[in-house]
Amino acid sequence: MVKNIQINPKELDQRLSRRSFLQGALLTGAAVAGLAVTGCVPQETKPGSDQAGEVKTKPLPLIFKSEEYADGEIVDADLLIIGSGYAGLWALMTAHEKGVANIAVMDKGAIGHSSVASLTLGTSAYVLPEEGDDLDATLEEVVRDADYLSRQDIWYDMFSKSKERLDKINSMGLAYMAPGRLTSDGNVELKISGGTAYTDSTGTDRVCGKAAVCCYMDQVKDYEDVKYFSKTMATELLKEGDRVVGAVGVNRTNGNAVAIRAKATIVATGQCTFKGQHAITEIETGDGYQLVYDAGGRLNNLEFNSFDVDPVGYMLEGGSILCEMGSILENVNGEDFMWSIDPERGCGCNVAYSTRGMAMEVAAGRGPIFCNRKTEVFGEVGQNEHWLPFLSPGSWQRTNEDRFADIGFDLVETPQKFTANSFGIIGAIVTDVNCKTDLPGLFAASVAVSTDPGKIKGVESQRGLWTGIQSGTSSAEYLGSAADVTLADSEIAGILANANVILGRKGTLSANELITKLQRQVFDYRVGLLKTEESLTAALAVCRECQVLLNQVSIDDSHELIKFYEARNMVNIAELHLLASIDRKETRVCHLRMDYPERKDGEWLKWIEWTKGADGKPNKSYRNVPFDEFPVQPDATKGLNAVVRTITA
Amino acid sequence: MINNIDRDKCLQCGTCTEICTKDVLRWQSPENKTPIIKYPEDCQTCYNCEIMCPGTAIWVHPAQHKVVNCW
Ligand SMILES: Cc1cc2nc3c(=O)[nH]c(=O)nc-3n(C[C@H](O)[C@H](O)[C@H](O)COP(=O)(O)OP(=O)(O)OC[C@H]3O[C@@H](n4cnc5c(N)ncnc54)[C@H](O)[C@@H]3O)c2cc1C
Ligand code: SF4
Ligand code: SF4
Fold this sequence. Notes:
The complex is a heterodimer. In chain A, strands 1, 2, 9, 10, 11, 12 and 19 form a 7-stranded mixed beta sheet that branches. Chain A has 3 domains: 73-304 and 426-494, FAD/NAD(P)-binding domain; 308-422, Alpha-Beta Complex (Flavocytochrome C3, Chain A, domain 1); 502-648, Fumarate reductase/succinate dehydrogenase flavoprotein-like, C-terminal domain (Methane Monooxygenase Hydroxylase, Chain G, domain 1). Chain A is an alpha+beta fold. Chain A has 19 helices and 21 strands. Chain B is of the alpha+beta class. Chain B has helices at residues 15-19, 48-52, and strands at residues 2-5, 25-27, 35-37, 58-60. In chain B, the strands form 2 sheets. Chain B has a two-stranded antiparallel sheet with strand order 1-4. In chain B, strands 2-3 form a two-stranded antiparallel ribbon. The longest helix of chain B is centred in the first third of the chain and has 5 residues, at 15-19. Chain B starts with a strand and ends in an 11-residue tail after the last strand. The mean pLDDT of chain B is 91. The chains are: A alpha+beta, B alpha+beta. The interface between A and B is large, with 84 and 57 residues. Bound molecules: flavin-adenine dinucleotide and iron/sulfur cluster (SF4) (2 copies). One iron/sulfur cluster binds next to α1 of chain B.
């Protein structure tokens, strides 16, 4: 029987309060809002010092200063890039290299630094066809493991240009901390190199995603003619007929609304993970999906959603990788149950199955699930060169694990309660292979571009880079002959006024309360993992209640205004996700219908696409996968679905 | 969740308020760049502020207080 010694926030608080070395006010919990250093004003500039009195400061990091704008201001640009993670920064680099000047970059956080990208393991996966990898075989594996709904044109282009990207990464001085390895994620084999490392222009050593983002920021820091609008959340795209001509955003610090009127726009805003508990996904609220959908663009693959293997109550990135490397998922009886689900790989199997296996175990009354990474099981963590990058000194993950050790919690030797946490919707914005959407002037980049219904771990960062290059190139070409924007100030004024008109509204619930209500539905394993008509329909009803409740959310200040918009986007994307999940009456890759466990190639080798109807309601259509244009042909005897049959048998 | 900002170490550089991924930290006022933990309930325990703080003044508590629908 596994001993239930768990991370308990209350106990942590107690241990913490006994710490004597902490200086200044010690704060616990939400009750201390706003009190941290109130009334204690430090001197103008003063070096920090540790307890021994030693001077201990680091250089100021490179931060791109935001433009200041008055409420209702309109700014003109040639190109607007919304989002500054891997995709946004690479789009910026590419467009600039192609000669585009007068670029505006908008981000709801700080430029670069508050992206998910900056908190990843790094820019991490690639295949190198020029160095012996068989590109056709790799493509076949990827497509097969996505049960044949992949955008083969996109994957082929992305894989075939990976050497180019890697050379560029190398030329920027971004290094890999561990050698490339062949990893098995399902049957897909990709070379995944460990986290990245970089010494930035301030002379500071950075690791993991921080290294990559700081490196890309160094590349663009001297660009003239780029204006940054940080802490500014895009809430609506501007239209001139069918053409997209920029966006309106609101400032999360002061609530001011700004319009960037631009000849071309790239949406590079990341995924929709419903602010899940999975490590650091809270900014991924599907904003780009909503922006494009509202403007008349297409979304697809929204029924496919992924979960990851994660601890309850603390942060860990790479839970499924831990399992691949030998740690074990155990049920409440201490049984290593995953072998009954995947006899070949046990809990080292594809995360789509391990998470569903966990859910099946809980449904059978053998939960909760624990992760055992004891040294006797997992081996010496310190000796595992592939796990080591996750724990690079200076990364959040290492800081986190050390912090637990500091206060006497051993995450390694004590099996921890684990769950399957939502990693979000896999589907996204539909574009062509050049990242052009259906709407003139609008391009998409980042993981918000729909490529695949499956989950291939570790390639998202490359998808960010690839989409950045494609959209940067396409937008530059478009700008070569794009007409001037004629949308008048007076037409923009109303949209601007609308963007923050609800600021100060008194309602009956907070955005957080609404989000929690939604999360309870979409994260429920019966809704997200083991879907049935009944569970999905019930969740949809709650989702629609949430849509109504949006009108009752209190918006006390600009911080809450942003959360309101995030809630709006998540609720609307959840509705599409649930509608699509109900519609696809079969089981395919990351969409497991317990009531339709078979993959039905005859009927369902097609994408479900969503546009916004003239009545504002979701409009559904189908598009067949164009196998006559694609090299890999479907094979009913192959694909991940075979494992699903084992689970549901 | 972010737990402490050591006022004796703080350089009032504005880095943490700028880069906080969740807008948890704010200046005390536009004139006073002392950071305050204004929205602690929104902290996602990402250590971004702590890692980037030039004054090593920030200490993040490792537990996540927000646990939704775990099973
Ligand atoms: C903890 C974690 C670790 C990961 N590790 C890896 C890894 O090691 N390798 C890998 O390949 N993938 C990894 N991933 C996947 C990861 O999401 C991508 O690799 C990477 O973040 C993709 O970059 P991006 O530019 O597409 O999106 P993001 O990095 O999410 O950037 C999107 C940007 O858009 C901004 N934004 C969003 N909405 C708006 C709006 N409405 N207005 C203005 N700005 C907006 C955001 O603030 C953000 O800065 C990881 C994901 C997580 C959560
Ligand atoms: S980053 Fe550190 S030094 Fe700078 S304002 Fe914040 S707490 Fe103070
Ligand atoms: S840990 Fe992350 S979310 Fe929390 S205050 Fe620091 S930067 Fe913000």
